[in-house]
Amino acid sequence: MNNQSETSKYQGVWESLTFQKGYCLESQSSYNPMIFFVITGSLSIEINNDITYPVASNEMFMTPGDHSFGITMLEQTHLIICHVTMDAWFVEQRWIDQLVNYNKNIPKDFYKLPVKIIIIRYLSLLDTYLREAISPPYFFELKRQELFFLLFYYYPEDDLAQFLQTLLSYDIQFKKFVISNRFNARNVRELARLANYSTSGFIKKFQKCFSDSPYKWMQKQKAKQISSEINRGVKSLQEIANEYKFSSFQHFSVFCKTHLGSPPTEIKARKKIMQSFSK
């Protein structure tokens, strides 16, 4: 995105931004879908340098999946943005699946929805959490899951099918297979074989759907799971290393330092310190 905001609070999944009138945001060549909530102010979004749509305060929209877009602030505007990564939203797969049939019959146009009062209250509290810089990243991932629960609970399915059409327009079955089998393969070649693809064909389709290489993505998923296991504190570090088939504890430690920023012993020690302070 172009230009700096007046204020910015960011926690991986969520971003809270205030822009002055005239500021412009543009789509990048590779990005995950984003849900924009206009808290105050107003903006316009232009799709493919063609049609421009106005969006007012207390309205929300999702950025289009296969089209470029540009957003211009019509006045000072406060936005909250939810970054919806391709692997994350499969937590809500059972709900998303219900919308597939709706999606076959809806126009592929820009679509916005009013932000209902329950969502406004939810976003207000979320903004407070962002301001206070709550540190565990998984907390904000849980808040994203809560958002999808609220959307599916308070909005009709036909509205959601149009609103979430960017998600539905991706190759759902391919991504669903990848998510379900990401830990059943030791490497990209095995995952491609499970999917009945040549390795090169699998890599090409994967990059189109996930905007990342299969190897990097699989390493990130593995790191997420390991981080969760360490912070949960149920298993010993050696048990975790064995479960994820590391050849040695040293290899496991190097992996954690590379992908999580610290060796597993340090991650576990920090968790204990945090727990002692919270008592």
Note down, in words, how this protein is organized.
The structure is a single chain. By secondary structure, the chain is of the alpha+beta class. It has helices at residues 93-103, 117-131, 137-154, 157-163, 165-168, 172-181, 188-194, 199-210, 214-232, 237-243, 249-260, 264-278; strands spanning 7-11, 14-19, 24-26, 34-40, 43-47, 51-55, 59-62, 69-73, 77-83, 112-114. The longest helix has 19 residues, at 214-232.
Please describe the topology of this protein.
Blueprint: E1 7-11, E2 14-19, E3 24-26, E4 34-40, E5 43-47, E6 51-55, E7 59-62, E8 69-73, E9 77-83, H1 93-103, E10 112-114, H2 117-131, H3 137-154, H4 157-163, H5 165-168, H6 172-181, H7 188-194, H8 199-210, H9 214-232, H10 237-243, H11 249-260, H12 264-278
Low-confidence stretches: 1-7
Beta strand %: 15-25%
CATH architecture of the largest domain, by name, is Sandwich
> Which structural class best describes the helix and strand composition?
alpha+beta
Task: Give the oligomeric state.
Answer: single chain
How many separate helices?
A: 12
The beta-strand count equals 10
Q: The CATH topology of the largest domain is what?
A: Jelly Rolls
* Main sheet strand line-up: 1-2-9-4-7-10
- The end-to-end distance, rounded to whole angstroms, is 41 Å
Report the major sheet.
Answer: 6 strands, antiparallel
Name the CATH homologous superfamily of the largest domain: Jelly Rolls
Roughly what percent helix? 40-55%
